[in-house]
Amino acid sequence: MKKTLTTLIAALFGAALLAQVKVAVHETAADQPVIPKEIYGQFAEHLGRCIYDGIWVGKDSPIPNVDGYRKDLVEAIRELKVPVLRWPGGCFADEYHWRDGIGPLSERPKMINSNWGGTVEDNSFGTHEFLNFCEMLGIEPYISGNVGSGSVEELAKWVEYMTAKGGTMADLRAANGRKDPWKVKYLGVGNESWGCGGNMTPEFYSDQYRRYATYCRNYDGNRLYKVASGASDYDYNWTRVLMNNVRSNISGLSLHYYTVMNWGHKGSATDFDEDEYYDILGKAVEIEEVLHNHEAIMDLYDPNRRIDLLLDEWGTWFDVEPGTNPGHLYQQNSMRDAMVAAMSLNIFNKHTARLKMANIAQMVNVLQAMILTKGSEIVLTPTYHVFRMYNVHQDATSVPVTMPSDSLASKSGRLFPTLSVSASKSDALHVSLANPSVDESKTVDLEFDALKPAVVSGEILRGKGKGIEAVKSHNEFGGKTAVSPVPFKDFKMSGRTLKVTLPPASVVVLEVR
């Protein structure tokens, strides 16, 4: 890891210079934005074992289930307070034909999932199964529509099938067991249209978007929030063209950003050294610059911020676990993933003037998953625990913080902060802090504008062991839990200051009253 100026100063005058940080928490600041709960959204694609064996086991499964949905998963997801769930893809969305997933299970046609491992998709989890799952858990559904291989009529009739009270599509829905329409707000018009969704140019996709969006109607009080397929990572031209060419009938523009150092060799999810750890953190927090640049382009064309930015795919992406199908993207989940999640969410919490949704990839058994399953067993990952701890920020008012901008450089030269913080207030003030250092504790003085803390509680998440071994900690099947939150009490109150000591490689969420 490269040495920065602050690191060299610390070496000369003592590590305490870096370990002591003052953070001003401006809880009295007026006119602050609300952190949309949708920032904590999820993504479930027909990919590997995300849907089948993950969310859905079927009503006849020996695995305990609620109408076919894994009972243990339902309970775990309920604890997360998931606000929105994107489905059925991903790349799968642009090969998905919704009529294949309705009607009697025995009559649903099978297809080859050519995007993800060449496995057979039996369509036993379709529109009814997805929307009923969302309804059961109070989750807002986000439908990703087929533009790449579908038709305008197909997507238009899917919207009608889901949301209209009367007509031919409503009659078909009723014949399949659902009389009343569902409420469906979010509709993605295509996915990654620059790649697996059709390999389109931004100019061509702009025309396609306008055409498809025209025929996706609002029925019987249901109002669609239409999302255009946006850019990948640093493709600022895609955003520029869409913002110039699509001026109406659009509510949001998507963006995808994955934390990958080398697409040819992504590295192991659990076997890495300190340099690789800091490289990943540097790549993860680079999302802030990417957000800023896309937002700046959107501001040029939409200064009143009528169109939202949605980061509807993000997260870490490593090599699959040995012995698993390369196309199923199954990876373990370590304390490193938890740190990426915590530092990313702290960034998202500060960008909500334009950023209105984020959907981590993915919910179960795929990429940076919340949950891993194996037969009747279930594992809650370190990332799951970060999302559960951070759900206190959902729909809370953002609280600005000011702090030193000390940073370190990873081996590849990417900068990452020595401390990551965000705060919000609802019924109480919540502060989330992440100390990424593998070997250095940090004493943080939280200095409030007016609040004199009287009651403080908190949780901490960290791995077992010391140094990089703690960061490599992960939870395994068979009850081997190495990472789970515990109460945090290493703080002292004094007037308007709360002194907090963060152990190395730890995530802490505080509630202050």
Which segments are poorly predicted (pLDDT under 50) over 5 or more consecutive residues? 1-18
Q: Strand arrangement, largest sheet?
A: 2-5-8-9-10-11-12-13
**Shape category:** globular
Reported CATH architecture of the largest domain: Alpha-Beta Barrel
Structural class: alpha/beta
Number of domains: 2
Which CATH class of the largest domain applies here?
A: Alpha Beta
Number of extended strands: 27
CATH topology of the largest domain: TIM Barrel
How would you characterize the largest beta sheet?
Answer: 8 strands, parallel, barrel
Q: Which quaternary structure do these chains form?
A: single chain
Which percent bin holds the helix content? 25-40%
Separation, N- and C-terminal Cα atoms: 39 Å
H/I helix tally:
13
Range of strand content:
25-35%
CATH superfamily of the largest domain: Glycosidases
Rg over CA atoms: 23 Å
Indicate the mean pLDDT: 95
Would you kindly provide a written description of the structure presented here, covering whatever features stand out?
It is a single chain. With 513 residues, the protein is of the alpha/beta class. The chain folds into two domains: 5-31 and 408-512, Golgi alpha-mannosidase II (Immunoglobulin-like, Sandwich), CATH 2.60.40.1180; 83-325 and 343-360, TIM Barrel. The protein is 26% helix and 25% strand. It has 13 helices and 27 strands. It has helices spanning 5-13, 16-19, 71-80, 127-137, 152-163, 168-175, 202-215, 236-245, 274-285, 287-301, 335-348, 382-390, 468-471, and strands at residues 20-25, 41-43, 65-66, 69-70, 84-87, 111-113, 119-121, 140-145, 186-189, 225-232, 252-259, 308-316, 355-361, 371-374, 377-380, 397-399, 401-402, 407-409, 415-417, 420-425, 429-435, 442-448, 456-462, 486-487, 491-494, 497-502, 506-512. The strands form seven sheets. It has an eight-stranded parallel beta barrel, surrounded by six helices. Helix 5 packs across helix 6 and helix 7 (202-215) crosses helix 8 (236-245). The two termini are 39 Å apart. Mean pLDDT is 95; it is low at 1-18.
